[in-house]
Amino acid sequence: MRLASVMRDGRPTAAVVESRGVVTIDSVVPDGATPAPADAMGWIEPAPWTRLAEAVARAGDDVFTDSAAETFTAPYRHPRKIWGIGLNYREHAADLSESAPEQPASFIKGDHTIIGPDEPIVVPRQSERTTSEAELGLIIGRLCRDVEESEALDYVWGVTTILDQTAEDILRLNPRFLTRSKNFPSFFCFGPELVPLEEVLRSGPLETLEVSTIVNGTDRRSNTVANMTHRPASLVSFHSKMMPLFPGDIISTGTPGAIVVGDGDRVAASIPRVGQLRTSVTVQR
Q1: Which SUPFAM superfamilies does the entry mention (predicted)?
Q2: Residues 54 and 136 in one domain
Q3: Model pTM score
Q4: Is residue 64 domain-shared with residue 195, that is, in the same domain?
């Protein structure tokens, strides 16, 4: 059972994706029983998630629709924080003539950067060299503060596919321009599904996941999580010791390779056992 948001009457609506298809949450959780979260982010905490799972299990097959007929959008739009991690795969650091940092090279992105599947990445006028980067995203599920690496994954609700964008030419002007180069609108695409961590781990540890950046149908850069300098549990622990992490916060764990994109390109992030995120690229005129 996975979380998503689909379009209903022109607005995003929280939904569940499972073997029978897609069902909107408002069609299986009774109105007025208890307050229902407004979007998918509100269902990832333990109590709402348990209540939702029970409601979906009771639902009849007639309320489900074929996922192929649905229009998916970003699972939610307003996390309290989005953390990005730079140069986390050794090979990608080498691409940029950099060495992998001993501590995570992290930065924060605003929620104005969020788009969902098939919402176009917009290359801004200020940039002539924008890259797109497939990444594994970690979704925090409960308040996380000062946790050790050994317990860090207990605070991760699940994972998702991400396309993170960078105005690389701006970053090359000065490494202090990292925030600027990462925060243009449409520079954070995620979804279409949020996958519970327990589902992913049933098929193997996170370190076995392969992350691929695909442009125009060609797999351009791939690597496994095992080749990260700072692996998921380490990233959660590190950032929790800096500041609290809240339910719905996202940690985008770094890319195996950044690919320069241009007008009309089709871009995808592919992670077996998690999903595939697709969108297109347009250039701001």
Answers
A1: FAH (SSF56529)
A2: no
A3: 0.94
A4: no
